[in-house]
Design a protein that fits this description.
GO terms for molecular function: nucleic acid binding. Residues 126-309 form the Integrase catalytic domain. By secondary structure, the protein is of the alpha+beta class. The chain has helices spanning 2-14, 18-25, 29-42, 52-59, 76-82, 90-100, 107-119, 180-194, 222-231, 247-261, 272-288, 298-309, 391-397, 401-409, 413-426, and strands spanning 134-139, 144-147, 154-164, 170-175, 200-203, 210-212, 219-220, 234-235, 322-327, 333-336, 339-342, 351-356, 360-365, 368-374, 382-383. It has 15 helices and 15 strands. Helix 10 crosses helix 11 (272-288). The relative contact order is 0.07.
């Protein structure tokens, strides 16, 4: 009530505009206009001698307990869903409501009753996520035993879970570990499952995601950043001790544990593929299961909200890459998994970032690629490119055994024979 009286004072005593009043009182311009229109319609004059309670009674007579045919209630579930779309506000939805229902309720009533309806939802559902914006990822706390058919050994499979913010559409799969290759592979398969890419991926402070945890500026694992760059997404880890940051993922994990893992508790699995086929069947059922407090299901919400907003998948498939640090030896080679790869000789003693895939080795200095090689599995050997050598080494390398023998032949066959004999003994 004090804000209503202050709005009236600023209008009639100070002469401020609706915009200036809104800034001063910290309410919306639509609300300011509503207050002033109600005051004008009431027949009251300023200064007003009524008490706060009497003024409120005049401006805001009690709303009817039930909606009449002339003043139907808004569809709050539809309002809640529309607010997830970019740029949509309560003011816009109220204007659309009044266009369809000219005798409908005023803006302040509209906002008040939407907030009351929203307050009855679960805490996670009340968070208004933009469509196509965030994908929350984590691992379930439960594991699933998988039996080796030949040895009888039991191995525990980890369960990766991903949930889209706006629709709660869910992905789940089993992997052997939470290590980097499995972690990144699950992301790639999740994006393929969704058929597109969100703007942001929100992981927990898992070691595979975050090299060094920090409340505000965690260090993202370089291999994870490599995946993010390939798909064009941002990685924004949940902040430590901020449960709302990861509430969506935690609820998604609970749902997967309740509706998928619990349903599989009495089944035996003899391979990871067999387990994932079972998970996929129950996952489809989960996404089609109707919401309790909202219309539709995860599937219908995904089709209408998140799917149209996702960005396209890249044309080239993702290739897992591991990053390492390596210092350049005096012979301008770096050692990677027991093999030696050349880099420009000017980088001797410098520390480089090395990107390893199954097929290639790439070396970076100051974020610039300085060398690229086919990956070799031969321990103790060297892969050397002549352009990496200093000039004196290149000239020396040009004198191959065949060139030395041809040069000796110009002197005579005996000289060539001696040179050939020396070279063979060295070999």
């Amino acid at each position: 009530m004090r804000k209503i009286r202050e709005v009236l004072r600023l209008k009639f005593e100070v002469g401020l505009s609706a915009r200036q009043i809104a800034v001063s009182v910290q309410v919306g311009r639509v609300t300011v206009g509503d207050y002033l229109n109600r005051f004008a319609a009431s027949g009251l004059s300023w200064p007003c001698s009524l008490s706060d309670a009497e003024l409120e009674q005049q401006l805001f007579p009690p709303a009817p307990a039930v909606a009449s045919e002339k003043r139907p209630l808004p569809d709050w579930a539809w309002v809640h869903a529309e607010l997830r779309r970019p740029g949509v506000t309560l003011a816009l939805l109220w204007q659309e409501y009044r266009l369809s229902q000219p005798q409908g309720f005023q803006y302040s009533w509209f906002c008040e009753h939407y907030r009351a309806w929203q307050g009855k939802l679960d805490v996670v559902m009340r968070q208004e996520h933009r469509v196509g914006e965030k994908l929350f990822v984590d691992y379930a706390g439960q594991t699933v035993p998988v039996i080796d058919r030949h040895s009888g050994e039991i191995r525990q499979a980890q369960v990766f879970v991903a949930v889209l913010g706006a629709s709660s559409y869910t992905f789940a799969e089993a992997t052997w570990s939470q290590q980097l290759p499995d972690w990144l592979g699950s992301h790639a398969r999740c994006f393929a499952f969704l058929g597109g890419v969100p703007e942001i991926v929100v992981p927990d402070n898992l070691r595979s995601a975050v090299s060094k945890a920090h409340r505000y500026e965690p260090d993202i694992n370089p291999s994870y950043l490599d995946l993010a760059e390939h798909y064009g997404v941002a990685v924004v880890p949940a902040r430590a001790r901020k449960p709302r940051d990861k509430a969506k993922a935690e609820v998604g994990v609970q749902v997967v544990e309740r509706w998928i893992l619990a349903a599989l508790r009495n089944r035996q699995f003899f391979s990871l593929d067999e387990l994932n086929r079972a998970i996929a069947m129950l996952l489809e059922r989960l996404n089609q299961r109707p919401f309790k407090k909202l219309p539709g299901s995860r599937q219908t919400a995904f089709d209408s909200l998140d799917r149209p907003a996702l960005r396209s998948l890249p044309e080239q498939p993702y290739v897992y890459a591991e990053w390492k640090k390596a210092r350049v030896h005096i012979d301008y080679h770096v050692e990677v998994d027991g093999h030696y790869y050349s880099v420009p000789y000017q980088l001797v003693k410098k520390q480089l970032e090395v990107r390893l895939t199954a097929r290639t080795v790439e070396c970076f200095h100051a974020n610039q690629r300085v060398a690229s090689h086919i990956r070799s599995l031969h321990k103790g050997r060297h892969s050397t490119q002549t352009e990496h050598m200093p000039k004196s080494h290149r000239e020396h390398a040009e004198w191959t055994p065949q060139r030395l023998i041809r040069w000796a032949e110009q002197t005579g066959p005996n000289t060539a024979g001696v040179i050939r004999h020396i070279l063979e003994r060295r070999i």
